[in-house]
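Hi C.,

You asked whether I'd gotten around to modeling the 695-residue construct. I have! Everything is below, sequence then structure, no commentary in between.
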Amino acid sequence: MHTFWNFFIDRRQFTILVMITLVTAGVVAVFAIPKENAPEVTIPIAIVQTTLRGASASDTEKLITKEIEKEVSSVENLHKLTSTSKEGVSVVSVEFDASSNIDKSIQDVKDAVDRAKPKLPKDADDPVVIRITAGDQPIFIVSLSGGLPPAEFTRLGKEVIDELEAVPGVSNVVMSGAREREANVIVRKEALASYGLSLSDVVASLSAANSSLPVGTITVDNIEYAIAFKGNLNDPEELAQTTVGTINGNPVYLRDIADIVNGIEKAKSISRVSIKGLPAESAITLAVYKKPGGNIFKTAESAKEKLNDLSTTLLAGITTEVSIDLGEEVQKSLSELTKVGFETIFLVMICLVFAIGWRESLVAGLSIPLSFVIAFIGLNATGNTINFVSLFALILAIGILVDSGIVVTEAIHTRYKKNGDAILAAKEAIREYARPLTAGTMTTVAMFAPLFFISGVVGQYIQSIPFTIITVLIASIFVALGLVPLIAIQLIDKNTESKFAQMQEHWNNRAQVWYRAFLKKVLRDKKFQKKFMWGMSIALVVALLLPISGIVKVLFFPQDDAEYAYLEIETKQGTTLEQTDLAARAVEELLYNDVRIKSFVTTVGASSALSQNTSSGPKYANVTLKLVPKEDRKETSTQITEELRRKVSVFHEFSVHAFEPAGGPPSGAPVLITFSGDNLDDLERAVSAGERVLR
């Protein structure tokens, strides 16, 4: 084995070329590798959502949910099938085995849904199959406010969406708080009867006219009928010219039997923004999503730059407030972890200076960045990303990888002092230590390798830890045996020793003499050995009891001090959007005077896009809180969230829950209680009783 490593000593020019090439490629990889806050995890779950407007929950279950369940239940690798049937909405959740091919499984679900489509009611919308991933949350949320009319605001929002979706890396942009322009047709009942026409004739004619101006309602005798279709007509005047029938060969136009009102649709969602405790004003909120595998930092930065460019043109006079910027969060996290990494390297080198000398510490210390740049080449080539998990693994690897460099450097240093020939000293060190160092590194690799076999979401989330550490360790053994000897030859091939080196050698010798005497004393004292073993055994038992007893808390992933939090509001089933808005305003009153909150954005009509179980409908609302920077507040986001939970507990007519960004991979509720049965009334009573017990 040592013959291979000696080649790098004998061919110095080649070794230098290899070193320069690896460093250059590593630096390029550092800039090219995608950067994100957390590993992107593919969750083996698909959601099938179908809408049947006006249907009751029982009809939705009977006509849609059961038909879809029959077809989907035959899909391969199915682990669990659950469903929820609400008024007009069917949601079927399909969970696959963790080892299944998610792409194939999703396609199987789509094929099963296609088989179920002919059995569904004609009035039902086509089922939508949604693939769930951990990255399905916005990386950038911005609110636009400025006192524009609703229709003008919506037009502005669409133009901004077009601009943002053109940004590289942006997948799509979702708008909340917008209200589309639409026409309402008020039919005169007497005119309709005089021409011998019916309401169905009017609806059919409007549909055939291909109107692009959305028609929201047709009103006859003060009774509204909700309809919706779009096409090529853009103006209410054009809509009035639509032919709805003929009498004696003469056309009957819509204007002859109805009045057309050009207005805006009923609000499906409401958005407001409050900045620095000022009263919330109407806004539209844009949530920006990145493409899978994209660089979250670059995408968010590009989106912000686009908004800055638009501030002098399209958004002139409009207030923009960014409530969530995960790109900035990633940048801060990466900067902090990078700083810790450099501090670790510095402390390691300081220790080495006093242990083996400054030249030798420099040689051993260089093995750290060299190992890292080689590891970055491997990480980039295999499609990995830089995130807080992989950075943690890099920092963890520093203390392990530097050992090989230290051993080789010290071995060369010792042999050089004996024979005075740096090249010979390097070859002797390699011959003696190549095998044990390789064996030791491989045993460490073998220790981390089993982490690859952890399945499920957790396995995907932490797989960058073993991959990063193993890649760094393999790179470190190459650096220690192939590159460090050449560096050592250049740096320690000196004929004179400094006073510091002489003093260091003196104190090292004294330390060796003391340690040798200490070991002899311990090994001869049987009584001390017994006390020591008993002490270590007791300490081990105590250490094991600390987490079991609860004295030391056990957390799978610790909670970070985040820059934002959010509130989820849910009112009773059947609550209108306006009533939910009143509930949201009541919650807002608790937030205005909190100096720790820089701004907040309220959205009525949907739960938070940051939550792991997003829902939409008039009974849902959410408030996203942007906290002041960490250095400007004493409390952590966890403490602030706990305080908010106590504040919102005063509401009993509706539920309010406070959350902060969760650490670790996506997961469900810590405790899930399921009630099952055949009678819906009995289930409702059981659930109500369970809620009272838990509260």
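If it helps when you're writing up: The two ends are 68 Å apart (CA to CA).

Thanks,
B.
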